[in-house]
TrEMBL record:
A matching Pfam family: PK_Tyr_Ser-Thr
PANTHER family in UniProt: OS01G0588500 PROTEIN-RELATED
PROSITE patterns, per database record: PROTEIN_KINASE_ATP, PROTEIN_KINASE_DOM, PROTEIN_KINASE_ST
Keyword terms of this UniProt record: ATP-binding, Kinase, Nucleotide-binding, Plant defense, Serine/threonine-protein kinase, Transferase
Binding site residues for ATP: 117
Name of the protein this chain belongs to: non-specific serine/threonine protein kinase
Database matches in InterPro entries: Kinase-like_dom_sf, Plant_Ser_Thr_Prot_Kinase, Prot_kinase_dom, Protein_kinase_ATP_BS, Ser-Thr/Tyr_kinase_cat_dom, Ser/Thr_kinase_AS
Source species: Musa acuminata subsp. malaccensis
Gene Ontology process terms (BP): defense response
Family membership noted in the UniProt record: Belongs to the protein kinase superfamily.
Chain positions covered by the region annotation Disordered: 367-417
Length: 417
């Protein structure tokens, strides 16, 4: 369903091209058609994904059922100046409701909401709409966006979410606007950790969900830059029993999908880990996963960046220049090493998201993650220095995937965010 309830950037960048079995959706949507309409199961409760009545949508945690008239009033009749963004699913509008009664409120009062209004002509969008309702009514976590309610009335399909005032990570990383200031190193690491925790929860035994569309536009930020995952239209139940994967039609966003998923259609939690690695590289470089405006050898960010990520001496050359030395060389090197493990061509060699979260927590706790003095950067030459990683340092080893990553012993200080 695309980036929801925040302002979107319209772009021709192929990183937004979504595929189904290697081809774009014939409907021109941001995602391909959802293949399966079978029911799903979370914590032993079953909710059909096929079009049906309101009773079929609701599960153990009941969201508010809004009428179309209520949401029309809350959004000022879906006025253009209430528009937050548009995608293949339709449009997202800003609205206001009473925080206690959920009745429509005057603009500027009560609780701000984001209302996703599905294009009624999109059957594909309806399937994704149903999938998102089903997951978000059954899953709750601080790093997942909260579904407040929905509207299912005649041909109208709407979802009501908590409003995320700082918009998407995509906008902060790639949009050049006075409104979006460059993210500091500490904020980037905070966002990576929050998003990682959200994915780790989805992969946990409690949820057993494969997100399948992890990317910067689906990571939303609250007023304190806490990351929350949004858009569950392509999510799938993970494998059960003795099965190691879910076989499904290939769908997602080009540039973020794992290679084994593209080639076989076999979907596992490690597919999400690969996508997380792509976003880590975007956080390091400030560049999109796919961008045809770059030189031909740099169109695919991961392919171009991998040799740099693997070299302690060269990784500084690809760091986002807008960071202006707010990171330590050691911090950049170790984050690059973590990204490289997530991007392993062999899924079994990638760390789990629990391991990724531990590594990111240790990165934030380490004393050498603090800002590098400008004198060090100045003496190092063009973009960075080899000096920091050659300095003697007590280290411990933390297992990440099938390998070991050397990590400094954690200290009491934390990065400011």
């Amino acid at each position: 369903m695309g980036n929801c309830w925040v302002a979107e950037v319209k772009t021709d960048s192929p990183s937004h091209v979504v595929f189904a079995s290697g081809r774009n959706s014939k409907h021109g949507s941001k995602k391909g058609t959802v293949l399966s309409a079978s029911s799903r199961r979370v914590s032993a409760s079953s909710v059909p994904l096929t079009p049906g009545s309101e009773g079929e949508i609701l599960s153990s945690s009941k969201p508010k059922s809004f009428t179309f008239s209520e949401l029309r009033t809350a959004t000022r009749n879906f006025r253009p100046d209430s528009l937050l963004g548009e995608g293949g699913f339709g449009a997202v509008f800003k609205g206001w409701i009473d925080e206690h009664t959920f009745a429509a409120a005057k603009p500027g009062t009560g609780l701000i909401i984001a209302v996703k209004k599905l294009n009624p002509e999109s059957f594909q969008g309806h399937r994704e709409w149903m999938t998102e309702v089903n997951y978000l009514t059954q899953l709750s976590h601080p790093n997942l966006v909260k579904l407040i309610g929905y509207c299912l009335e005649d041909e109208q399909r709407l979802l009501v979410y908590e409003f995320m005032p700082r918009g998407s990570l995509e906008n902060h990383l790639f949009r050049r606007s006075p409104y979006y200031r460059p993210l500091s190193w500490s904020l980037r690491m905070k966002i990576a950790l929050g998003a990682g925790r959200g994915l780790a929860f989805l992969h946990s035994d409690k949820a057993k969900v494969i997100y399948r569309d992890f990317k910067t536009s689906n990571v939303l930020l609250d007023s304190n830059y806490n990351a929350k995952l949004s858009d569950f239209g392509l999510a799938k139940d993970g494998p059960s029993g003795s099965k190691s994967h879910v076989s499904t039609r290939v769908m997602g966003t080009y540039g973020y999908a794992a290679p084994e998923y593209l080639s076989t259609g076999h979907l596992t939690a490690k597919s999400d880990v690969y996508s997380f690695g792509v976003v880590l590289v975007e956080l390091l470089t400030g560049q999109r996963a796919i961008d045809k405006n770059r030189p031909s050898e740099e169109h695919n960010l991961v392919e171009w960046a991998k040799p740099y990520l693997a070299s302690k001496r060269r990784v500084i050359r690809i760091m986002d220049s807008r960071l202006q030395g707010q990171y330590s060389v050691a911090g950049a090197q170790r984050t690059a090493g973590l990204a490289l493990q997530c991007l392993s061509m062999q899924a079994k060699r990638r760390p789990s998201m629990d391991q990724v979260v531990i590594a990111l927590e240790q990165l934030q706790d380490a004393t050498d993650m603090e800002r590098t003095p400008k004198t060090e950067l100045k003496s190092s030459g063009h973009r960075g220095s080899d000096r920091a990683h050659n300095m003697p340092r007590r280290k411990i080893s933390v297992d990440v995937g099938d390998g070991k990553v050397a990590r400094p012993r954690p200290a009491a200080s934390h990065l400011n965010a």
